[in-house]
Amino acid sequence: MMTVNETHDPALRSWVASAQAPGTDFPIQNLPLAIVRRRGRGEPWRGGVAIGDQIVDLAALHRAHPWEGLAAEALAAAAQPKLNALMALGPAHWSALRRALSHALREGSALRATVEPCLLPQADAEYDLPAHIGDYTDFYTSVHHATNIGKLFRPDNPLLPNYKWVPIGYHGRCSSIGVSPQAFRRPRGQIKVPDAAAPVLAPSRRLDIELEMGVFVGPGNPLGEPIPIERAEDHVFGVVLLNDWSARDIQAWEYQPLGPFLAKNFATTISPWVVTWEALAPYRVPFERPADDPPPLPYLDGGANRRAGGVDIHLSVELRTAAMAACGMAAHTVATTNLRYTYWTVAQMVAHHTVGGCNLQPGDLLGTGTLSGPEPHQAAALIELTQGGKQPLELPSGERRTFLEDGDEVILRGWCQAPGAARIGFGTCIGTVLPALAG
Amino acid sequence: MMTVNETHDPALRSWVASAQAPGTDFPIQNLPLAIVRRRGRGEPWRGGVAIGDQIVDLAALHRAHPWEGLAAEALAAAAQPKLNALMALGPAHWSALRRALSHALREGSALRATVEPCLLPQADAEYDLPAHIGDYTDFYTSVHHATNIGKLFRPDNPLLPNYKWVPIGYHGRCSSIGVSPQAFRRPRGQIKVPDAAAPVLAPSRRLDIELEMGVFVGPGNPLGEPIPIERAEDHVFGVVLLNDWSARDIQAWEYQPLGPFLAKNFATTISPWVVTWEALAPYRVPFERPADDPPPLPYLDGGANRRAGGVDIHLSVELRTAAMAACGMAAHTVATTNLRYTYWTVAQMVAHHTVGGCNLQPGDLLGTGTLSGPEPHQAAALIELTQGGKQPLELPSGERRTFLEDGDEVILRGWCQAPGAARIGFGTCIGTVLPALAG
User: Fold this and answer.
1) Residue B297 to residue A190, Cβ atoms within 8 A
2) B310-311 and B284-285 as β-strands: parallel, antiparallel, unpaired?
3) Cα B328-B203-B368 angle, rounded to 5 deg
4) Dist CA A11 CA A31 (whole Å)
5) Mutate: best of B159, B188, B262, partner A, most A CBs <10 A
6) Spatial separation of the C-alpha atoms in residues A174 and B356, rounded to whole Å
7) Within an 8 Å CB–CB cutoff, is residue B163 touching chain A?
8) In terms of domains, do A363 and A244 share one?
9) Looking at CA atoms only, how far is residue B224 from chain A in angstroms?
10) Does residue A246 form part of some domain?
């Protein structure tokens, strides 16, 4: 498990002045990675690190050759057009790179003259997916979401008997994962209203959001060799925001018996900045389940997981309709929640995924599932917030929403705060609904 | 839709004598592609075409530069370490390569002296996966399998109401797909017997086979732009045998509500030779559903699909236990079936997969689902053949089997025969069960 070290010291200051700006997501204690380039110049993609409102271009820094050893090896990998090679290296390399960057970006660093020419303003940048995602798995780790949505799909049987034993997950679609900001068409699909004799092909009328986080896998495991929970976090590179857009009407008709398919695979949006697992060390929290719940099976249990398996990440969902955007209104927060409300930890997801021998690979993405919390305002999907579309949300524009309308923009945010630690953030994960294709 | 042409002429003979051997899978009318190299020499992987008991090394042939135009472009793509570039080119290129190879391999060909040095005996070859598989989707197209297995999992409700409307499918795991021959460990997983209070982690005791076919996607579609059924087959490169190994006890406990996960993702085996869609043209058959079933929705319907949407591919499952192998006994056929028994065609799978905007990419793999036919001996999984493990199979060795035991070898075969056409085959898809890891 990554521990707090000098790179997390809240007193650290960077010679990049904007890293000290109040409320910045990217102080020197964060140092998330993305795949970046200058917008509109056809440049090659390469890794970058956020600092304040700037980006350290890691390909340029690699050419400047500032370090030796593990940090240099990690920098070479991070200069590539995808971060898979860096993800494959593992925690010792990631830590060396973080420490080297932290030193180079501190006030008074002797490397300032080397690093400063490698800065690229975030305002001039565009982003690609951080990794080639070989496989994408979506879990279902919020018992609150599972219960809320179970009530809507199966009123007599909301939480299935396996839920408190099995970290439920399923395989998702890789090809349609896009980086924020992503605009996507409202999907058409088979929809059957309850009293109709037959389904029709029509644009979804119940298009929803799902606020999740996405975990990027670091080093993988060979086929047939499970990752024990004690070592699971050595295989976790970092975390992004993830919006698992869902067409509830398509889902309701198609999902039995093999799970969601077209209801989910038309688009999935992730935020560009991968906040490393090490950066999250100051925000780890104990992870205990309710006393009257069954203890996890041994392969899902461990002292470290109980002591600090959770991560305290504040999350929010904001909505801005086309009308709100047209008159310059700010987005409206419709939900706030936290990663710590999950029933299963990231380490448990990794241990479960591999217990049967399934091989993970660097760059694989693990979604947490919709991160609804215990309170009604902590529901991380519209179907929960509006009780299945029966109680519309009131927006400051006077509009109402049950599900998403064309032109709606959804903004996910995440941030961490803790006593004795800096505030760090995840940037934004933005998606916009385009009209369906004409039928 | 690919039509029958001179390359399918059953009278064609090759100067490779073994292409005329009785019962060969690889006469000159077949010409399937694989990724190959000489075994044990650390050579680079490259494309190859089977002819009799030989392989035309397409990298060597590319260096010999025998053609111009589309055939030359296709050959350059096929000489790569994966077939994705060839798959991306589309039917005109594939046809040009097939025609050029057919001419070059015919008796009397002027190119014999160019091609003969490029031959590599299959006996000396090893195989890799034919493509980088970006996404793997598994369908559920046999109504017989869906009904048989539905009776076991949901006796009161075997065939769900969506089955005859929706080509049910779900996303599978790419990382654990291997090429035949694949040996894999019996998975461990959570198993809960009906009268137990809690599940246990244990090796699967109900390890099963699923005989399927796998369809490799050719050119993809952009996100948000569906492929209409009339053009669906232009996006189909070719077909392999596929064994979707399944742990039924893990599946029964984990699969609700999001579908199979660890029950399937420990291994999936495909045959190395991709039989092209064009090679299958002589074996196309009409595709009509029972008169009292609902007609497909328009996006899944079309004249060409009804006239010849099916493919008549004979399929078999053979089993050889370790004891049978030790005393030199041949494998025992436990099931024979046919691709034509599906309820949905390959074109319908493609049209449905993309109707909501999901993008397919070259090299994506679409499994048909377990290809059980209407008769009991046509059941393509042990759970069906043994009625949920209640009626063991009797083997010629005197052994009995409900589910797979350690050391069991499973061999899938497929072949096509039709009046006025040659017999072509798929080779074999072989997998062997290794013991589970110690607990």
Assistant:
1) yes
2) antiparallel
3) 75
4) 15
5) B262
6) 15
7) no
8) yes
9) 6
10) yes
Residue-by-residue pLDDT tens, chain B, 439 positions: 579 999 999 999 999 999 999 999 999 999 999 999 999 999 999 999 999 999 999 999 999 999 999 999 999 999 999 999 999 999 999 999 999 999 999 999 999 999 999 999 999 999 999 999 999 999 999 999 999 988 887 888 889 999 999 999 999 999 999 999 999 999 999 999 989 999 999 999 999 999 999 999 999 999 999 999 999 999 999 999 999 999 999 999 999 999 999 999 999 999 999 999 999 999 999 998 899 999 999 999 988 999 999 999 999 999 999 999 999 999 999 999 999 999 999 999 999 999 999 999 999 999 999 999 999 999 999 999 999 999 999 999 999 999 999 999 999 999 999 999 999 999 999 999 999 998 7
Query: A152, A207, A254, A258: which to substitute to probe chain B, counting the most B Cβ within 10 Å?
Result: A258
Domain end marker among A80, A104, A128? A128
A290 and A425 belong to one structural domain: yes
The H or E element that residue A170 is part of is strand A169-172
ipTM computed for the complex: 0.97
Active site residue B145: yes
Query: Are residue A275 and residue A320 in the same domain, yes or no?
Result: yes
A121 and A141, same domain (yes or no) = no
A67, A204: one domain: no
Q: Point out the residue among B162, B259, B356 whose CB comes nearest to the CB of A259.
A: B259
* Residue A167 to chain B, least CA–CA distance (Å): 9
Query: B1 in a domain, yes or no?
Result: no
Peptide bond between residue A257 and the one before it cis (omega within 30 degrees of 0): yes
Residue B118: which CATH number?
2.30.30.230
Between residues 254 and 273 of chain B, which touch chain A (CB distance below 8 Å)? 254-262, 265-267
Instruction: Please check whether residues B209 and B343 belong to one and the same domain.
Output: yes
Task: Answer yes or no: do A193 and A317 share one domain.
Answer: yes
Do residues B268 and B243 touch, judged by C-beta distance below 8 A?
yes
By the CB < 8 Å criterion, does B226 face chain A? yes
Residue A309 is part of which domain span? 136-434
Rounded CA-CA distance B65/B75 in Å is: 9
DSSP state of B164: T
Residues A124 and A267 occupy one common structural domain: no
Q: Are A223 and B179 in contact (CB under 8 A)?
A: no
Residue A402 is assigned to a ligand binding site = no
The partner residue sitting opposite B135, judged by closest CB among A168, A175, A437, is A175
A163 touches chain B (CB under 8 A): no
DSSP string, A253-287: HH-TTT--STTTTT-EEE-S-BEETGGGGGGEE--
A429 in any annotated domain: yes
The residue out of B128, B157, B175 marking a domain boundary is B128
Residue A439 within a domain: no
